Amino acid sequence: MAKEENEEKVNEDSEYKDIKDLPGVGSAIASKLKSVGYMDIISLATANALEVAEVCDIGEPTAKKIIGEAREASKMNFLSGLEFQDRRRQVQRISTGSQAFDILLGGGVETQAITECYGEFGSGKSQLAFQLAVNVQLPNDKGGLEGHAIWIDTEGTFRPARIEQLAAAKNLDPREVLQNIKIGRAYSSEHQVLLVDKIPELVNKDPKIKLIVVDSMMALFRAEYVGRGTLADRQQKVNVILHNLQRLADRYNLAIYITNQVMARPDQLFGDPTAPVGGHIVGHVATYRVYLRKSKKNNRVAKLVDSPSMPEGEVMFELTAEGIKDCEEEKKK
Ligand SMILES: Nc1ncnc2c1ncn2[C@@H]1O[C@H](COP(=O)(O)OP(=O)(O)O)[C@@H](O)[C@H]1O
Ligand SMILES: [Mg+2]
Question: Which domains are assigned to the chain?
Answer without folding.
Answer: 18-73 (1.10.150.20), 87-332 (3.40.50.300)
